[in-house]
Amino acid sequence: MQHRLATLVIALLGIACALPALATDLTPPARAALQRILDGGRDSHSDAVLVLKDGKEVGHYYRGGTPPGPIELMSATKSVVALGIGQLIGQGRVKSLDQPVANFYPEWKQGQKRDITVRMLLNHTSGLQNVAMAPAEIYPAPDAIQLALAAELEHAPGEGFAYNNKATNLLAGIIAEASGKPMDVFFRDGLFAELGVVPGPWDKDEVGNPYAMAGLPLTAADAAKIGQLVLQRGNWHGKQLVPAAYIDTMLSPGQTLDPSSGLLWWLRPAWMHFSFDPDSLAMLRGEGVSEDLVQTLGRALAGTRFDGPDALMAGLSERLGEDVSRVRDELIGKHRIGPYRLFKIERGPVAAYEAQGYLGQYIVVVPAAGLVAVRQVGAPAGDEPQPETDGYGDFTERVVELAVAMGDLASAPAAGAP
């Protein structure tokens, strides 16, 4: 009886967290790294985790044992939208990344807004005023495009990096103006049809504009096709759907004023070391952060060093304790100062490209290893989402670790090593 029960448990686990036959070709360290990705999917309450190597599945985890339907990509939608802009540039319907937005919206031909380009919408340097949380300003607005067009400038175009949902939504209008179709129809009839992608209903504002900042639901398998297209530099079964040169630019460092950002794709180094920078306290004072919070941070972080973003966030929570919410509200919410600015950062070479969304929606591409990995989680029905427990913050790190275990990437040097 016990033997049969154990067999049943093993069978059920095999359904939910599977390693296909191809995974048996991996070395034991690589299989262990792959299993760690899938176990993390289960432990973080994921709905889906899917890992491909050279276009073939090597492992998956599905809550309940079967692939779920389309799940909203949240802000990872932005990365898909960037591919649509690349298509339009390849077709000549958008002249270049540096074409002024005023060519599509003549009301911007006056004043500083005439200097805002398509590239600036893609690299978060437009300078448009923005409220960080979309539910506070964007979702209540009946027309997200008009909301962006009417926004004031916080700084001159091109002079500062600020993650900007409002500005990104203008890309939906540009795609519609350039293609003659609403953005969701443009993708449905074009890129998605070529890839065999069947999306869920794209979230829209009251007047019918699809959001470019979020709102696109895809299955894990279809999200993986987006990653595979990027891995293959825009080529799909011998057909160049997005210009390879555009993909290269989209993923190149130096496209933004933030070294971790390309054009609506995030660039993840092979390793990162964070060492607290005492000089950051003067920066905080100069930005108007309260002296009490400056001193709290100085005491809590003095002499600290963390290996990787996930270790950094865990370390901040541990050292700040009850002050974490105050740091989030004042430092990030009020002054828009992210925690990275408190540290000196050592970065390895770029190893992975990542589309990322709220709650931990991921499409991760590691070119050196031929890896594409997707993680999805749906908002809990009737419950508030819990990013702290459900976010899978080290998903990309684990995918990079798999590439290292496969022998396709060098391992990280010790902190402080040359």
Description of the structure:
By secondary structure, this protein is of the alpha+beta class. Helices cover 39% and strands 14% of the residues. The chain has a seven-stranded antiparallel beta sheet with strand order 1-3-2-14-13-12-8, sandwiched between helices. A three-stranded antiparallel beta sheet has the order 10-9-11, with helices on one face. The radius of gyration is 22 Å and the shape is globular. The termini are far apart.
* Biggest β-sheet strands, sense, barrel: 7 strands, antiparallel
List low-pLDDT spans: 1-15
Distance linking N and C termini: 59 Å
Characterize the overall form: globular
Cross-sheet strand order for the largest sheet? 1-3-2-14-13-12-8
Count of helices? 18
What is the number of strand segments?
14
Radius of gyration: 22 Å
Going by helix content, strand content and strand pairing, the class is: alpha+beta
Mean pLDDT: 89
Task: State the helicity in percent bands.
Answer: 25-40%
Strand content: 5-15%
Keywords:
disordered N terminus, alpha+beta, 18 helices, 14 strands, globular, seven-stranded antiparallel β-sheet, 418 residues, three-stranded antiparallel β-sheet
Write a brief caption for the model:
The protein is an alpha+beta fold. 39% of the residues lie in helices and 14% in strands.
Strand and helix layout:
Blueprint: H1 2-16, E1 17-18, H2 28-43, E2 48-53, E3 56-62, E4 71-72, H3 77-90, H4 118-122, H5 134-137, H6 144-149, H7 165-168, H8 170-179, H9 183-189, H10 191-195, E5 217-218, H11 220-231, E6 235-236, E7 239-240, H12 244-250, E8 266-269, E9 272-276, H13 280-286, H14 291-301, E10 305-307, H15 309-320, H16 324-334, E11 343-347, E12 350-357, E13 361-366, E14 371-376, H17 387-390, H18 395-405
Antiparallel strand pairs: 1-3, 2-3, 2-14, 4-5, 6-7, 8-12, 9-10, 9-11, 12-13, 13-14
Helix pairs in contact: 2-18, 3-8
